[in-house]
Amino acid sequence: MRILGVGETNDLGDMYLRLMQAGHEVRVFMGDEKSHDVMQGMIDFVPDWRASLEWVREAGDEGIVVFETATLGGEQDSLRAAGYNVVGGSSVGDRLENDRKFGQEMLAGHGMQTAFSREFSSFDEAIAFIHAQPRRYVFKLNGANWLSARNYVGQMDDGRDVIALLTAARDRWSAEESASFLLMEFIDGVEVGVGAFFNGRKFLEPANLDWEHKRFFPGDIGELTGEMGTVVTYRGARRMFEATLSRLAPILEESGYCGYINLNTIVNEKGIWPLELTSRFGYPGFAILDSLHDDDWATILYGLTRGSIDSIRTKDGFSVGVVLTVPPFPYSDGYDELGRGTPICFRDNLTEEDMRSLHYGEVTMQDGELRTAGMIGYALVVTGIGATIEKARADAYQRVAKVVIPNGRYRQDIGVKLMQNDWARLKAMGWIG
């Protein structure tokens, strides 16, 4: 097969490496200049992805364009109309993720209960609104270009901390575009995502459940990050899937959506509250899911574009993924001095199975040595699988101990809260078996 990857920061680099190792031809385009050293010497990069479209077309059914971001949905729609095989999303998918008000309206319109939310383009109007209706709010910026750390989950019942945040943001706002953001009522409960692949006509079985760990420090302390680790399973998702994500099949089919999609939710005794959609491959979610796949990426990508499969073969049990980072993650300022070029070493007892469980992120090959690269120090993801969360955790962390990165950081508690509280609560509410 011939795969052309199109993205900004080479988020799917691990997928491309595995496709290449299986004998497939791969070319990749990265739009962000700060990421041009990611996987240099490991993958074949092109300066203009459109110039490689004919190379893809020459492969016929086995030529596929894979989009990483939720920003080029219109391009994907046009390519599909021109006869190309495209995996990624669609223009409607982009809007579902990036226009939070639209996303909430679509979720409500398809029969899901949603938390109160209101969109703003003025910090002062938002501040006045909270003064008039004090409660705990979540602040979320619209668009695809903001770091997760810019969002904020309010902690005070009268909203004073969110008012303080909005005031500071107003005084320091320096972006060329005007602010656009959502204030959403805080909902207490278990945070859980439900995801599945969509082939343009229907969802492939099975769907999966995931429990993300977004904050930087153990115990869910500190700023929101891209992701510090996740627990996933392909078993037991049916009831949640049918109550939420499956209901979006009509709008996805109408838009020609082809790819992976995930819905993040809060679940409590009053039901499921959908929060936001990720209309693309999530990172590191795709790598953690990969550890549970019995079908390889070539089979999945081909099946999605041709509509030739109704399901993917997956393992029982759980996968735990642990993200390894270097300073100044999750920020980019100071990375050249603090983290870029840090060597990544492995202990002698690293096995072939261990190597398959290492999913590279912002790395490069320099003089035959693996080093950190890219923008923020998101080095790699280490996965472990097991029949239980506890066994998957043990499998993952025994591998983490075999990776040595000077000044490397990671969370040691991935999956602990799920084992101690959240799994039992979801089971008691009847959402999982």
Describe what you observe in this structure:
- With 433 residues, the protein is an alpha+beta fold.
- Among the domains are: 2-96, NAD(P)-binding Rossmann-like Domain (Rossmann fold); 116-185, 2-Layer Sandwich (Dna Ligase, domain 1).
- The protein is 29% helix and 26% strand.
- Strands 15-14-9-10-13-16-21-18 form an eight-stranded antiparallel beta sheet. A four-stranded parallel beta sheet has the order 2-1-3-4, sandwiched between helices.
- Helix 3 packs antiparallel against helix 4, helix 4 (91-98) crosses helix 5 (100-109) and helix 6 (123-132) packs antiparallel against helix 7.
- The two termini are 39 Å apart.
Which characteristics define this entry?
22 strands; 8-stranded antiparallel sheet; single chain; 433 residues; Dna Ligase, domain 1; globular; 15 helices; alpha+beta
SS summary, helix count? 15
Low-confidence stretches: none
Specify the CATH homologous superfamily of the domain at 2-96. NAD(P)-binding Rossmann-like Domain
Shape: globular
Can you summarize this structure?
The protein has helices spanning 13-21, 53-57, 73-81, 91-98, 100-109, 123-132, 160-172, 238-243, 249-255, 285-290, 297-306, 335-338, 352-356, 389-400, 416-428; strands spanning 2-7, 25-30, 63-67, 85-87, 117-120, 137-141, 152-153, 181-185, 190-199, 208-212, 215-217, 221-224, 229-233, 258-268, 271-278, 318-325, 345-346, 358-360, 363-366, 369-372, 378-386, 403-404. With 433 residues, the chain is α+β, with helices and mostly antiparallel strands.
SSE arrangement:
Layout: E1 2-7, H1 13-21, E2 25-30, H2 53-57, E3 63-67, H3 73-81, E4 85-87, H4 91-98, H5 100-109, E5 117-120, H6 123-132, E6 137-141, E7 152-153, H7 160-172, E8 181-185, E9 190-199, E10 208-212, E11 215-217, E12 221-224, E13 229-233, H8 238-243, H9 249-255, E14 258-268, E15 271-278, H10 285-290, H11 297-306, E16 318-325, H12 335-338, E17 345-346, H13 352-356, E18 358-360, E19 363-366, E20 369-372, E21 378-386, H14 389-400, E22 403-404, H15 416-428
Parallel strand pairs: 1-2, 1-3, 3-4
Antiparallel strand pairs: 5-8, 6-7, 6-8, 9-10, 9-14, 10-13, 11-12, 13-16, 14-15, 16-21, 17-22, 18-21, 19-20
